[in-house]
Structures are given as C-alpha cells and as structure tokens.
Amino acid sequence: MYGPPLLHRPASSSGRRRTGVLAAVAGLVVSLLAFVPSTDASAAPSLLSQGKTVTASSQEGAGTPATAAVDGDNGTRWASAFSDPQWLKVDLGTSASVSQIALKWEAAYATSYRIEFSTDDNTWSTAYSTTTGPGGDETLNVSGTARYVRLTGTTRATQYGYSLWEFQVFGTTGGDGGQQIPGGGDLGPNVLVFDPSTPNIQGKVDEIFRQQESAQFGTGRYALMFKPGTYNNINAQIGFYTSIAGLGLKPDDTTFNGDVTVDAGWFNGNATQNFWRSAENLALNPVNGTDRWAVSQAAPFRRMHVKGGLNLAPDGYGWASGGYIADSKIDGQVAPYSQQQWYTRDSTIGGWGNGVWNMTFSGVEGAPAQSFPEPPYTTLDTTPVSREKPFLYLDGNDYKVFVPAKRTNARGVSWNGTPQGDSIPLSQFYVVKPGASAATINAAVQQGLHLLFTPGIYHVDQTINIDRADTVVLGLGLATIIPDNGVTAIKVGDVDGVKLAGLLVDAGPQNSQVLVQVGPEGASAGHAANPTSVQDVFIRVGGAGAGKATTGMVINSNDTIIDHTWLWRADHGEGVGWETNRSDYGLQVNGDNVLATGLFVEHFNKYDVRWSGENGRTIFYQNEKAYDAPNQASIQNGDIKGFAAYKVDDSVTTHEAWGLGSYCNFTSDPGIHQDHGFQAPVKPGVKFHDLIVVSLGGQGQYNHVINSTGSPTSGTDTIPSQVVSFP
To answer: How far apart are CA 486 and CA 491, in angstroms?
Structure first.
C-alpha cells in the first residue's frame, strides 16, 4: 500500500515525448494485429492479461499506475521511477499455457530486460531475455506455464524510467484443452430444501440445531431453504454456521406460522457469542406474538417480515453485544433490552423499545427520532446508497439468483410492489462444492460464470480472482474460504458491479498480507453508477485454529459499498495469543467515495480501521480493542498511547461518520490506557456524529473519545464517555 517515493520527470519533457509516441502508436495499431498468436484448433490463444491484477516495483506518478499497462487503452501507460532495476507483474488469476508476449513501449523503453514466469509468485524462471531491446512494439514468442508473468527491466534506454502503454500476455487456460465448466446443477448435501408437504420438518431442523447449537468453531455448514408456501407449527432454532431462508421472490411468499429462534441456552443465557448465522426472506407469525433473535456479530436478519414483535435479548435478559437488521418489516415493536448496540437499515418497524449505548438507524420507517446521547439514538432519514444482498429463489421450478437494484436515498424495504433488479438463472453459476480447486473456480469466472458457494469449507492454494464486471459471488450457509499458503483469499478487480456476499474468510496458518482485497493497488476507475458491494462477508483470524494476516480487508476500488461486515481477530478459541494470531489491521480503505453501513471490526493488534480515501462515510461502527495486549508498551504508537479503533489519515479532507463505539477490555493488563478511540484530522470536511468509548468494568481506560476531545472513562463503572459532534 505504501510504495517507494514517486519521482517526476520535468513536465515539459514528458509532455513532448508522450505526444510523439501517441502519434506513432496510432500508426501501429494495424501492424499490431499481425502479432495475434498462431491458433490451434483445440485451444486458441487469447489475451489473458487485460484487466487482471497487476503490481509494479514503483510508479512515476499518480497518472501512471501499473493498472494502465493492462487496461486495453493505448492512451494510458505505466511508468516507473528513474532507476534500475524495475518490474511489472501481472497475475493471470489461474495457471495458463503462455505462448506470446506483446510489449508496447513508450519512448522510455528497456534495452535490457527479461520475461519471467511463476506458478506460485515465489519461484521464477526466465522465459525470454535480451540486452538489445529495440523499444516500440515488440512481440515475443515464448513457451511455458505461468500464473504470474513479470517483466524485469535492468537497463534503460533513456534517463527516465520504464514506460509501457500495454503489457499483453497471450495463451490458453485449463489443462483439459479448454473444456467448458458446466453451470447449474444440484446444491449439494448441506442445502436442505423443504416444501410444506415435506414430512418431519421440525425433526430435521431440530437435528441440525442439536449439531450446531454450541459448535462455535466446528466444521458443519448448513442452509435450510423453504419453498414458497405456508408452514405450520414450526420453531426453527438456528445455531452456528446455519442459514435459514425462504425461496420466494418476496418474504411473504414463504410464511411460517411459528418462529425462527436464536437464544443462548448453550452459553448460560449469555448471547455475546451467538455469531455466524442468518435469517432471510421469510414471513413469520410468531406463536406468542414475538420472535426472539438474540445474537451478536455476524448474524444478519435480512429481508424478513415479522408479523408481530421482535425480541433481541436472550431468555433471562442476559448480555448481548449488537447486531444488524436490513430490508425487513417488523409490524410490532423491536425490543433490544440488553443489546449494547445495534444497526437497522432500510426497514419498517412498529416501534423501538429502548437503547443501551449505541442504537443507529438509517432509512428506517418508524425509527425513533434523533436523540443521542439520551436516549442513545442516532437516526438518519435515508441511507445514501444501498443495494440489497443477492439471494437464491425459485421461479416456478427453476432456481435463480435475484440481484436487487441499487437505491439512492433509500428508505423502507425494497420489496414493496414488484422488486426491482435482475434475475440470473442458476445455469449461469458455477455451483461450487467442497473440494473444488481455486484453479477451477477461477476458470469458471474467466469462462463467464458467476459463483454460488454451497455450505462447506474451501481450502485454496491460490487467490480467487473476480475480475469480470457484474460477477455475483454468493455463499450459502456461511461457506468458508481458507488460504493455505499465505495467498490473498479473494481479489476483486477494478471493475463495475461485483457482488460479494455471504462468505466467511478464515486466515490460514501461513501469514496472508491481505485476506480480501477489492480493487488492485492504485485502482482509479469510478464506479458510482454501478458500485461493487461487499455484504455479509466476515473475516476471522484465529479461533478455529492458528491463523495470521497482516490486514483483514483492503478496499482500493472507488465507490465500494461495505454493507455489514465483521472483521474479527479472535479473543477466544484455538490459536489465540498476541503473536499467535497476529493481525495488525482490520480494514484499510484506500478508495474514494466508499460507504460502510454496519461496520463491525474487533481486536486487531494495531489500527482496527484506517481510512485513507477521500469522501468516505460510515453509518454505525462497533469495535472492541484487543483484549490480550500484554502491556502498555505493546500498543505504544509513537507518542500516542494505543492505536485508534478508527483512524482517518491526516491527508484526508472529507469524511463523515455516524454512530460509532469503541470498547476496551484489557484483560492481560487492566492498567493499559488508550489515548483515544478515534483519531482524525481537524478539518471542516471531516465530521463525526455520536461517538462513545466504554471501559468494560475498568479493564483499561480511555483518556479521550476522539483526538483530545471527550472525557476519560471513569474507574470501574461501565459508563460511556460520549461526544455528540466533532469537531
């Protein structure tokens, strides 16, 4: 993220040389067509590099990023710093048989360079080298298998750096001679599909619950899917890694005369560990008039219609730690009781019962009025931009995935009247099942298929690359992806409209620099008309076993929507310790105009959230600092005690956030102090609304809320320190 310092050639010289080359390039377009590789009847070489993830040793300036060399635009270029050596590397996304390289040099070319191949981004072989490169347009016939292709320049022809209009890699993918990956098919054994005539529905649902009720770090993954119709006398209790959903186009198509229940009996009435489960797209007539959904993080309640009330606390009103509702209608009152914090988006409710620390609403009909700090309600009339999560449904007997349309200034549910959006037949999805390789998954995307991950655990030895615009990647039943060898689990290209939803990404034992990356480094395209969305994508480092990752999620693409994510460095389970499950940063935002609605990030060793892009917005943020910091020195940040839970970089001029909370519970050393929970530059365009910090029982203390503003937390009293607005 933080590359070498940029060097700049004189503007006049740069401009003169660029003009001349543009004219030359225009005359060479026709001749370039002659360099199309020779074809084979079984597998014709094709252009593999365009739009793929690309990195470089350096770049001359902001206008010459690495991405410009693979964007297919002869008027944009990558340029390096003015030194040797320099390199440009493209990740093809899957192993390929590479047969040809086309280089389109600007006037600043290499006389000495080599083309290198790698299958693992570690061991490299030389496919071509020269010390007499002529510049201009070069076409190189090569042969070899590679996922990563690197140009390394060692001698420059000019005083400037290396500069390429285009770096093109041609070849074929798939060792099976280009065999097509079929779309569609069955949903696998861990998707249980019911209709009203299915015998013993309650018994089957109870069997899954018995298995999953306390399996916090277990391997079971299940999706309970109900065809449209009416189901009587159902109480579906939902345990870990279990999703329940209706298969209608609208919630009222699938009605339970009964309940969907989450309680905390397995944990002695404490709901603070009721994670990783979901309910979607159902209508409920609760037996006693009120449904119980006592959850904490990573447990979304989406597109639901409760024809009664909703209780968010466990039986006995034990502790509960916050959750998320979206696109839902609750006819009666929502009663949070013991819930410490909660976010509700684009819904309709009959009322709201109370508030503990931090209750935030955007676009909610029936929400309480803005009143922070007492009661602690943060209320926005609308949500600036939203697009509901894609979901599986039945159109007659055919499975399809519905992709709701983007809304601006949204308020209320999206499904009144005819739902707006697109339906994609299951035949256009690669239905991914446990055992599928990353290479096959990537080949399916390159073939043009969307991805539907069925419930299970997926080990990947290479990055899953989503670099085609409008690709849907949807997980069922908390489908879990684990990178085995330190790779990034998922990378999304700098393209329009990718929908990434319903996945748990679990760090592997070998450190990954990043687990989920949206957009390559230096991404610059605008996507306001069709943003990429990241919804119910959860990240875990440790807990289920040893895991490490430097950064959980990086957002490089502009205009991205982060709609409900929980990024969690584990504080309990297996493989837990200050260095054992080391993860310095939860979320790094580099893109501009990024919106986060429902952001939960906890326990990272340094910054939980660091925001470097312009015009970022966050509606609701929930955080706990790492419990296991061994002492004050371990979290010292220069002259500052502790790394902020949410930091906006000093360079940022516009940023706005509403409804934020950070809590400390330094169990290893209760004497630790945090100077503040939040850190931001003091500028007119940087605005924060309704912030709190809380010391849980005096296990550590905050000195301030944001920067040096806000009172310190007080002794052992678990009472928030609040700031209504900043600056």
So the answer is: 14
The β-bridge partners of 393 are 400
Six token digits for residue 392: 């599986």
Supply the pLDDT for residue 44. 59
Residue positions counted in the chain: 727
The yes-or-no verdict on residue 402 having pLDDT over 60 is yes
CA–CA distance, 150 with 33 (Å, rounded to integer): 23
This model's pTM is above 0.85: no
Burial of 199: CB neighbours in 10 Å, binned 0-12, 13-18, 19+: exposed
Averaged pLDDT for residues 221-246: 98
**Average pLDDT for 445-468:** 95
Q: Please, are residues 310 and 295 in contact by the beta-carbon 8 Å criterion?
A: no
How many C-beta atoms lie closer than 10 Å to residue 219's C-beta?
10
pLDDT of 177 > 90? The answer is no
Mean pLDDT of 450-467: 97
- Tell me the C-alpha distance between 445 and 191, whole Å: 23
| Cβ contacts of 486 within 8 Å, gap of 6 or more | 508, 510, 511, 512, 513
Amino acid at 219: T
Tokens of residue 271, six digits? 């709901």
Strands 377-380 and 391-395 come out as unpaired
Query: How much is the mean pLDDT over the chain?
Result: 92
Is residue 602 flagged as an active site residue? no
Is residue 406 classed as helix, strand or coil in its secondary structure?
Answer: strand
Radius of gyration of the chain (CA): 26
| Per-residue model confidence (pLDDT) at position 252 | 98
- The CA distance from 204 to 206, in Å, is 5
Q: Which two tokens stand for residue 446?
A: 């390159």
> Residues 60, 166, 280, 624: which is the catalytic one?
624
Percent with pLDDT over 90 in the chain? 86
Tokens representing 110 are 């290499």
In our burial notation (b when 16+ CB lie closer than 10 A, e otherwise), range 158-181 reads bebbbbbbbbbbbbbbbeeeeeeb
